[in-house]
């Protein structure tokens, strides 16, 4: 089956290793460009002054926190239904990165909320549903780490990931469904963005930088999980290890 | 150009604490995550290649 060639852990390990340096370079270049435009080209906001510049990491991090959850649920479900090992390993590798981006979204939101709204935190629908997302990631990680048998851990995790996925549209549409203190979407697929071009460009560049970073870190973690599970396999023993001074 | 001096840049129009704590926390957390992932892969590789009894 050609489709499943890349699904073999050994194939994934080799291919991801080749892509990794390019992902890191992309992340660095995109972040540099995004930060430069964000701080030196984008104008001062008429209402919020310079405090709004937190947007260049806040919004991309919040997007990542939701996208990664959906990706995690997708791979977990695929791994469960098709019994595909690599899919389950990818789901496990995605979870910590999703938790990190959720933390960043909440933290940057708090230090933006203080100057913009006068409060670090408020129990409105957007903030509360994002906090629930953090608890879902923590729950997924705690559950999967607590079960020793990888297959059973993957399956239990998949259940949490799939059930929790209903929270993602709740986060996204919360600013429409409820009357929230949090502002509505500045960027959407159906309407023109309501912000200056330079601001939008900086935000999109930072989003792509976070994407590249997330791919790089998730691939690194997935490679570690592959090695942990394929411990003792012939292809693993054949890998070169610079730390041990072995030849390839 | 938005800033006339480095002092002005770091002051962020009086919002320096909020803006820079957001960026510092983000950079710190991402760097820590990348380091932990790198360490996990190195350890997994070393463990997988240890001579078996």
| Class computed from helices, strands and strand pairing of chain A | mainly alpha
Overall mean confidence score, pLDDT of chain B: 90
Radius of gyration of chain B: 21 Å
Query: How many distinct domains of chain A?
Result: 1
H/E series of chain B, N to C?
A: HH
Poorly predicted tracts of residues of chain A: none
- What gross morphology of chain A would you assign? globular
Walkthrough of the structure:
The complex is a heterodimer of chains A (248) and B (53). Chain A is mainly alpha-helical and 248 residues long. Chain A has one domain. Chain A has 8 helices and no strands. In chain A, helix 2 (55-82) crosses helix 5 and helix 4 (125-146) packs antiparallel against helix 5. The longest helix of chain A has 33 residues, at 9-41. Chain A starts with 8 loop residues before the first helix and ends in an 11-residue tail after the last helix. Chain B has 53 residues and is mainly alpha-helical. In chain B, 74% of the residues lie in helices and 0% in strands. Chain B has 2 helices and no strands. Chain B has helices at residues 6-11, 16-48. The A-B interface holds A 39-40, 42-44, 49-51, 53-54, 57-58, 61, 96-97, 100, 103-104, 107-108, 111-112, 114-115, 213, 216-217, 220-221, 223-225, 227-228, 230-232, 236-237, 239, 241, 243-244, 246 and B 1-3, 9, 12-15, 17-19, 21-23, 25-26, 29-30, 33-34, 37-38, 40-49, 52.
């Amino acid at each position: 089956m050609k489709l499943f060639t890349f699904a073999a852990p050994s194939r994934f390990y080799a291919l991801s290793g080749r892509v990794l340096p390019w992902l890191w370079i992309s992340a660095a270049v995109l972040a540099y460009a995004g930060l430069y435009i964000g701080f030196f080209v984008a104008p001062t906001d008429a209402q919020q002054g310079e405090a709004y510049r937190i947007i260049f990491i806040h919004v991309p991090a919040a997007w990542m926190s939701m996208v990664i959850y959906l990706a995690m649920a997708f791979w977990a479900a695929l791994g469960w239904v098709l019994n595909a090992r690599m899919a389950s390993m990818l789901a496990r590798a995605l979870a910590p990165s999703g938790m990190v981006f959720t933390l960043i979204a909440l933290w940057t939101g708090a230090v933006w909320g203080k100057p913009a709204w006068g409060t670090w935190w408020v129990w409105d629908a957007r903030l509360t549903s994002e906090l629930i997302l953090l608890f879902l990631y923590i729950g997924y990680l705690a559950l999967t780490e607590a079960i020793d048998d990888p297959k059973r851990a993957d399956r239990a995790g998949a259940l949490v990931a799939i059930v929790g996925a209903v929270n993602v549209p709740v986060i996204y549409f919360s600013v429409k469904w409820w009357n929230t203190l949090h502002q509505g979407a500045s960027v959407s697929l159906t309407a023109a963005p309501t912000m200056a071009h330079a601001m939008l460009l900086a935000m999109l560049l930072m989003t792509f930088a976070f994407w590249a970073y997330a791919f790089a870190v998730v691939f690194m973690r997935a490679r570690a999980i592959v090695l942990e599970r394929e411990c003792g396999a012939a292809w693993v023993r054949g890998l070169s290890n610079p730390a041990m001074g072995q030849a390839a | 150009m938005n800033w006339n001096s480095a002092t002005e840049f770091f002051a962020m129009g009086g919002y320096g604490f909020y803006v820079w704590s957001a960026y510092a926390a983000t950079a710190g957390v991402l760097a820590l995550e990348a380091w932990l992932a790198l360490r996990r892969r190195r350890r997994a590789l070393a463990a997988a290649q240890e001579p078996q009894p």
